[in-house]
Amino acid sequence: MKPVAEEIPNHHWADNAADELIQKKPDQDTFVCASGISPSGMVHIGNFREVITVDFVVRALKSRGKKTRFLYSWDDYDAFRKVPANLPNKELLEKNLRRPISDVPDVFGKEVSYAAYFEKQFESELAPMGIQPGYLYQNQAYKACRYAEGIRTALENQPKIVEILNAARTEPLPADWSCVSVFCSTCGKDATTVQAYKSPYTIEYSCKICKKQDSIQFDKQAGAKLLWRVDWPMRWAFEGVDFEPGGKDHSSMGGSYETGAKIVRAVWKKEPPFYVQYDFVLAKGLGAKLSSSSGNLITLGEAQSIYEPAVIRWIFASRKPNLDFTIAFDLDVIRTYDDFDRCERYAYAQEPGEPRKVSYEKRIYELACVEAPTSWTQMPQQFGFRHLCNQLQINEGSIEKTRVHYAIHTAVDEARFQQRAVRAWKWITEFAPEEFRFQVRNLNQPAPKTAHPAALRGVIDLLKQPGISKVAEDVLANSIYEIMKSNGLDAKRFFPEVYRALIGKPNGPKLASFLLAIGPERSIQLLESAL
Ligand SMILES: [Zn+2]
Q1: Rounded to the nearest whole angstrom, what is the distance from the C-alpha of residue 206 to the centroid of ligand 1?
Q2: pTM of the entire structure?
Q3: How confident is the model at residue 296 (pLDDT cuts 50, 70, 90)?
Q4: Average pLDDT over residues 96-114
Q5: Which helix (H) or strand (E) holds 215?
């Protein structure tokens, strides 16, 4: 994972966006911030980037005393265009191509529709992130004819729309092009051709599948839908959207944002929303199982299994939206947690730094928190990820036994410990590289005998000294070094033997802290068995 950019900005980008929005409309009290996704398959962490981009701006507006409406639009009246890989019952899905995804059955048999399955999953993943948008289901809006006036306005202004779209195309649109697609009332598919528009609300169409002519009264009947490039600006106008980010695919020259901006001005006489482009998010270190099934695209839920909600928020808050990055599942997981913990220490003035850096880090931390802190007097307890991983492995994954090694005093810290410990163990067992994993040797198994008994005895005697468990790590490390020196040994020759006695492999976590983590008593037993 790329570190946070070296150059420290004066303000967080979300604060800049909020300032710009307010500057444009200083008297406006409530700002509408929107985001939307077509649930045509698994909703992944790249889609999450759009939602959290809006959430940051919503928080920045709120911190400036503004009210917000945070809309999350499920574009589930889109037609089902392609059967994604890795889904069961492909035949059933093939049969439902070109119907609205909210009318396609759920092949998992859990929800009312294919779209609802992916919607519910993502909504449940969003809940613990501290993100609470108002969900809008486009299939309901369209079926309730809520956009009848919008469709009518678009149809009446179609020549203007065609002109704008053609300016962004190399080939002009065909003469029979329509800004509306119709789902056939008989077969439910959008394999239709619009024959005529009869003002105000009638569309005549023919179906290529049913081979018949029909008509629709789109102020009273469901079935008509604006094409994406017209639908988007229509909804900006309908909801009065002030801010909406978009992915790279929508952001290019002549892309749907650019044409949408022109269309909303020309047809609905409104200004387009303030726009931020966001880039891709991939994962690395997934291991064979996950990466082969998803092609390095992960869901928010998969990220949540390794990262705490606040750490996920921090990963996004500490980066500019228009830069791509990867979410680590490999050894860099440790660094990510360490970087988050450091940011937290900056925020609570527990880490020295120049004032501008500290204030920038504090802002990132505020945006990262699921609920922003109300007081800055007491920093929550930190449980270093690497140390926690080692303790968990020493205790064979028992969170209860690991818990004993930490002095935890508050319910908040207890909850923090639990949520990090669960994730650390999941990471160790499913993603951590082999060299990071270990198991403390079982004393009932025969031990490999040491070639340097005198030195090993020296370490054992050292561990037997009273109060050794309270001694500082570097003091212990120094004493071990002295023992090696007096026996004419160096770490390269001696350490592998100690590690073999402890964990049955030639290397492991930093020795002095590791001996302390295992505890003098258990360490002595393990080392003595190698004599
Ligand atoms: Zn039909």
Answers
A1: 8
A2: 0.94
A3: confident
A4: 97
A5: strand 212-217
Whole-number Å distance, alpha carbon 116 to ligand 1 midpoint, is 24
User: Average pLDDT in the 25-33 region?
Assistant: 97
Which protein residues have a CB closer than 5 Å to ligand 1 (ion)?
184, 186-187, 207, 209-210
Q: What is the dihedral of CA 186, 189, 193, 195, to 10 degrees?
A: 40
pLDDT of residue 374: 87
The phi, psi pair for 194, rounded to 5°, reads -75, 125
What pLDDT sits at residue 362? 97
pLDDT of amino acid 1: 52
Angle subtended by helix axes 453-464 and 473-486, to nearest 10: 150
Question: Crossing angle, helix 45-62 and helix 114-126, to 10 degrees?
Answer: 50
Dist. CA 210 → ligand 1 center (Å): 4
pLDDT in tens, 410-444: 999 999 999 999 999 999 999 999 999 999 999 98
How many Å lie between the centroid of ligand 1 and the Cα of residue 449? 80
The 10 Å CB-count burial string (b at 16+, else e) for 448-473 is: eebebeebbbbbbebbeeeebeebee
Could you give the C-alpha distances from 176 to 158, 180, 205, 278, in angstroms and in order? 11, 11, 12, 35
pLDDT of residue 44: 92
Q: How far is the CA of 176 from the centre of ligand 1 (A)?
A: 19
Burial zone of 289 (CB within 10 Å; 0-12 exposed, 13-18 middle, 19+ buried):
exposed
Q: What is the mean pLDDT of residues 170-194?
A: 97
- How many angstroms does the Cα of residue 79 sit away from the middle of ligand 1? 14
Amino acid identity of 336?
A: T
Contact between residue 147 and residue 173 where contact means Cβ atoms under 8 Å apart: no
| ω into 509 cis (within 30 of 0) | no
Q: 108 or 448: which carries more pLDDT confidence? A: 108
**pLDDT tens-digit map of 205-216:** 999 999 999 999
- How far apart, in whole angstroms, are the C-alpha atoms of residue 260 and residue 264? 6
Q: Between 385-394 and 332-347, two packed helices, what is the crossing angle to 10 degrees?
A: 130
Calculate ∠ Cα 179-39-71, nearest 5°.
Answer: 80
Chain center to CA of 479: 45
Q: What is the dihedral of CA 92, 213, 149, 158, to 10 degrees?
A: 100
Give CA–CA dist 492/418, Å, rounded: 37
Kindly report the average pLDDT of the chain as a whole number.
95
- pLDDT tens column, 298-334: 999 999 999 999 999 999 999 999 999 999 999 999 9
Distance from the CA of 417 to the center of ligand 1, in angstroms? 58
What token pair was written down for 325?
């990055």
Report CA(161)–ligand 1 centroid distance (Å): 27
Say if CB 135 and CB 127 are below 8 A apart: no
